[in-house]
Amino acid sequence: MYFSVFQRVSSLSFCQQLSVIWFVLWSQWGTEGAVVHLYVSPSGSDSNTGLQSSTPVKSLQHAVDLLQSKDIQGNMYRCAVFFFCPQAIFVELMQGYYDLTSTLTFAHAINGTAVFRAFQGQEVHLTGGRHIPSDHFKHVTDTKIQQRLPEVARTKVLELDLTAVGIANLGSLTPYGFGHSAWTAPLELFINGKPLRLAQWPNEKFINILSVPDGEKGRRFTYNAGGRDVAWTQETEPWVYGWWYWSWADESLPVAHVDAHNHTITLAQDSQFGVRVGHYDPIAPTGYSQQGGYFQVINMLSELDEPGEYYIDRTNKKLYLWPNTPLQTLTSSDIVYVSILSRCIRIESVAQKLNFEDFTVENCRQHGVSIANGHDITFKNMEIKNTGSYAINCEGDCRRVSVLASEIHDTCGGVLIKGGDPKTLTSSEVLLQDNHVWDFSRKGAVPCKAFEIGGVHVTVSHNYIHHAQYTGIWWTGNDHVIEYNHVHHMCWNSSDCGAIHSGRDWTWRGNIIRKNHIHHTLRYFPGADVRGIMLDDEYSSVLIEGNVFYDNEVHANIGGGRDNIIRQNVMYNATKNSIQVDGRGLGSGGHGVYLTQKLQESLFNTTLWKTRYPELAAILQKHPTAPEGNQIYDNIFYNRLGIERIQYSGSNLERKDYFDVHNNFRAYSPGNFWSPKDADFRLRCNAVQWADEEQFPSPVSVEDVGPQVPTGPNYLRAHRHPASARTTAVPVACDSSTVAPATTAPRGSYMPDGSSPNTLYPNIPKEGCWFVVDHCPKAPAAEGTHKDDIGTQAGTEEGCLARAAQQWRYCGSSPTGQVVAVYGPTGAMTVAGDGCFFAEYGCQTQNPGFHRDTWAEQHENASHDEAACLARAAPQWAYCGSHADRPITSIYRPTGHFRTGGAGCWIKILSCPADHTLQGYFYDAWGATNLATDHDRNECLERADRFWKQCGSHDNAPVTAFYRPSGASRTVP
């Protein structure tokens, strides 16, 4: 019955069609269930009803208008009263290309859920572009144009008369890059679904700026182009793209003038930060102070010199291209598109409960999908590509928006979305899961992230993110969860960048980054380091746990922030440092004024926020710009010798209230992991014992990160990248012996501290506590050598040595006298008296002795300031040449306290109940050979934890590690 109705309905008016459709829908809903199908086909007709696959409508906008029409919506309201409403309306997109002539707009509410999907998994493309048949392209015959082309391209380049094919909207070239996140591309060219690029030089990498004649705020700069800039002078609309001042701020800019004689370019507008001389070296990238100052020329016909490049002559409306096809030409089977529409799909806030499934959206000059305050919108198994900006952009308060199992690539950004209510900390319930996002920074770098999230509680889970110029995931706001993602090859065209990155806010609390694989984030360009996770400019309070980091320049950093926790991560093979920490907020370079202003503008003083984030509530009661409350513990590290696990950038940062670093494990061999080359970081050998002791969870496997379901439209799945899988390789046997310890220890201190025999007082018995008093005006009988009963009764070395200063004061604190206390069992001794002294084997000679540190007493008040006195040992040892056989001890004689500067890592164990072979004060030869403890301060100090646990972890049996090159020490517990 319905089919005959549909055959006759095409002759009716639109309102009459709707009435017939409503009659049929009413009949279906009442008798066949609450599901309706509306069919669309590029070969259909908008005079059809669309209610059968044999009578599809033609245009998507017509289908949307039918769903949003007042008659349909009114009837749906009436159906709701009588309980005959559809639960879902399926808009079935039949095979083919849907070339939109205007943005597909959802501007009205739709009752029920509308699902737009590829019919039976057919290949469907929704494009914002115009298809150009390949036979419209011709070889260049104009001799003037041929002469302007590079010789290698003259027989390869094709041309298209845009006017002849009816294309007038070419768009405008505008700056892109840093600060241009909402960039709209001009007309672009795509062949067989792949983008071409504007002709540029160099084709790869950049060239350095040689000078800036008008200063860094000027617009002129010089370069060396090897003479090819003669051709640039003929260009009608030349542009340049570069990293003009910072290697974290890229920008394209128009050119006002090219002076080929003086090899000088004049910009048509100012760069955002200025222009500086470049030191770009693709072989050996330089450091922070030499970043920026390199560029490319773009949009030049004279540089159209390889496949995949094109140029548009906007004056004469001509397109020139060198096809990026295998044959480097176009055939009838090649599909050529140019982009026309800014946004392909627009969803306004009133339109909700929309699902998009199983088709491709492409060739949009700005966004593939633009959403305002979207609610209950899902994208599943989509492909979105070839956009000028973010594939999906959801502005305002987005709730319950999901992007699932989709392929997003060749864009400038994947998904930008914010939502939730910061006032009530109500979740946005946004879910970005199981997606494959790659090559998402094809135009510009810094504004283009795979996911840029904000607001409250966005979940980014099980995504595969790779190959981009800048950051993969950028977050702002609160309570986000970033987990089980596979992220690699980020930051490959920039510096001072993180694969996962946030910064400059104290209030973005409650965020979690866990169980991700993050690797191959390496720096190839001058500037600051790149990191797997970057907490920039005093960012505070994120939990980083259970991740696997490998082959990054730096795995993670804490950029001066507070209350960050880094725990239970695998950190393998950093090329510079595993973790970097700093205290940038303590100095003039911090951001305290800005951060405090943002804090005051936030809701941190409300009852809800105080309950949820108690550390934030109390921040102004402390020193808010200090890096307090950070914790780094229960991580496992492997680096090549000489690569630090934790680098402290700044002075006086090695404080437990700033960075509480404890219970970390350093693997001394790659053999502690199953198969690092296969990203299999299951623990083995010595690491297993440590993991069992610390209850360290099994590292997340490569097969458990990234998408767990097929991604993209059905028609693409046969071409998808293979899923990661755990290796079945059998690792080599554990090497439990490691490397034999070194046999030559550095020399013990001249003033014995128990680390070497007491040659100054060799006749002291090996028991008890002893005094050697040379002058005691108040009690002359106490002069000489005799046993100290009080110190002996104390029974400890510490108690004995503390008696020296007490006895000196008892004797009258004579400036001409001193008291020596010697603990017999170890030979350790100290000297009490006045002032600050050195005990040394000699600075320039081998003559040992005690002498006053006159310089420190005169310049640093060291005769009255114990800290100033004791801090002198390590720098004096370095000043004297850092000889392993000439350690230097500083003694603050009023208290008898001392500190030694010298070579090596030394361990002091007074009691070891679980292993009686470990006792005394000894050089850590095994650690020096296998863990570089002689040169790695953190590794040395953490040996105190390992020996204490080996001794049974008794509170009354402490272990101290001394790192003599800096005079640092650590006692556990």
Automatic annotation (TrEMBL):
**Entries under Gene3D superfamilies matching the protein:** Single-stranded right-handed beta-helix, Pectin lyase-like
Q: Which Pfam family is one of those matched by this entry?
A: Beta_helix
Task: Please give the name of this protein.
Answer: Right handed beta helix domain-containing protein
Q: Which domain of life is it from?
A: Eukaryota
Report the source organism: Pomacea canaliculata
Q: Which residues form the signal peptide?
A: none
The family database entries (InterPro entries) matched by this protein are listed as: Beta_helix, PbH1, Pectin_lyas_fold, Pectin_lyase_fold/virulence
Q: Which residues form the Right handed beta helix domain?
A: 345-488
